């Protein structure tokens, strides 16, 4: 069952703040008025440079960070108003895969113990059933049952990330939030994990929030893309539209930075300058200080979100170039 809008998960006007240390009381706003939908059976990518607020948004959805304001709706219900039983059920339905599997898997637990842990926590099934679920999850991610007695340090990086995926799958969730899950892997292993995620989406109908800074990975994987800069979403839409006809200058800069294995192709470029501090964000458009296409209005006014494609396609951008 999904929410009234047909979305599995909806983020509405979300704000996440951190209290900065030091003698002067300051707060850092990591996520600024973000709204985002994830539909059933879709891979929603969230991209941007380091420090853009991607991980803060993902962790707030998981309720690992407090929310200053806004809502996270799962199947149409606000997670902040759920009672303990409802929240427990929802946590079982939303699982996470983190960037470094060696850090997220306990060195004291072998593979089988790692997979049984969420089943024990949520009291799913009896002992024999739990073991069968764990073995089934290993099979789903393409690992041999003979690995179940091994410890994380005895596995390759790709095997560890598959174990992390199996641990997320074992509770039979509806949504997996994957935070940079392939960034620490070499290219051939990345390709296999990407193919596995696509297969899980197709075979099990899973939804993913795939957090990444790498648009070359996102291009091979995502159904929908949201581009984040300094805590704001600057462009969102179906991957084919957004990556094929990027509307925001920041998205175009990110795409231009992707290396192409062709000696006749222009070398990749980088986004000029450095992002401002989130403690002292600029006025107007958050990207205007680095934007190669800025106009006078960009420094003075925050742009409104507007449609960037033909009616019927939900491709939206926050840029004055589309509001002249």
What does this structure look like?
- With 324 residues, the protein is of the alpha/beta class.
- It has a domain at 244-260 and 268-324.
- The protein is 31% helix and 22% strand.
- The radius of gyration is 21 Å and the shape is globular.
- The termini are far apart.
- The model has no long low-confidence stretch (mean pLDDT 89).
Summarize the structure.
The chain has helices at residues 54-61, 84-93, 101-104, 111-121, 127-140, 157-169, 187-204, 215-221, 239-244, 249-256, and strands at residues 9-20, 26-38, 43-47, 69-74, 77-78, 94-97, 175-179, 207-212, 224-229, 232-238, 305-307, 316-318. With 324 residues, it is an alpha/beta fold.
Question: In one word, what is the shape?
Answer: globular
**Radius of gyration, rounded?**
21 Å
Order of helices and strands: EEEHEEHEHHHHEHEHEEHHEE
> How much helix is in the residues?
25-40%
How many distinct beta strands?
12
Cα distance, first to last residue? 41 Å
Strand content: 15-25%
**What profile does the largest beta sheet have?**
8 strands, mixed
Going by helix content, strand content and strand pairing, the class is alpha/beta
| Spans where pLDDT lies below 50 across 5 or more residues | none
In the sheet with the most strands, the strands line up as 6-7-8-3-9-10-12-11
**How many helical stretches?**
10
Mean pLDDT: 89
């Amino acid at each position: 069952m999904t929410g009234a809008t047909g979305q599995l998960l909806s983020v509405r006007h979300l704000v996440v703040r951190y209290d900065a240390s030091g003698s002067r009381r300051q707060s850092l706003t990591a996520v600024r008025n973000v709204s985002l939908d994830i539909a059933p059976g879709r891979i929603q990518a969230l991209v941007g440079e380091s420090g853009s607020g991607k991980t803060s948004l993902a962790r707030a959805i998981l309720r690992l960070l407090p929310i200053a304001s806004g809502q996270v709706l799962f199947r149409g219900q606000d997670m902040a108003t759920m009672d303990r039983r409802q929240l427990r059920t929802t946590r079982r339905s939303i699982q996470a895969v983190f960037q470094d599997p060696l850090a997220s898997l306990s060195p004291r637990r072998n593979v089988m113990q790692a997979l049984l842990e969420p089943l024990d926590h949520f009291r799913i099934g009896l002992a024999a059933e739990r073991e069968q679920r764990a073995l089934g999850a290993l099979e789903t991610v393409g690992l041999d049952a003979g690995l179940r007695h091994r410890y994380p340090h005895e596995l390759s990086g790709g095997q560890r990330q598959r174990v992390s995926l199996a641990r997320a799958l074992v509770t039979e969730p509806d949504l997996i939030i994957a935070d940079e899950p392939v960034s620490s892997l070499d290219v051939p292993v990345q390709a296999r994990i990407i193919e596995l995620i696509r297969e899980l989406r197709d075979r099990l109908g899973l939804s993913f929030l795939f957090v990444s800074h790498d648009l070359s990975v996102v291009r091979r994987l995502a159904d929908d893309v949201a581009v984040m800069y300094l805590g704001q979403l600057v462009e969102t839409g179906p991957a084919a539209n957004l990556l094929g006809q990027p509307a925001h200058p920041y998205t175009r800069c990110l795409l231009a930075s992707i290396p192409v294995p062709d000696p006749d192709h222009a070398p990749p470029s980088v986004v000029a300058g450095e992002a401002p501090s989130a403690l002292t964000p600029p006025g107007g458009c958050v990207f205007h200080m680095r934007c190669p296409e800025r106009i006078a209005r960009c420094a003075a006014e925050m742009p409104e979100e507007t449609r960037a494609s033909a009616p019927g396609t939900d491709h939206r951008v926050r840029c004055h170039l589309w509001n002249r």
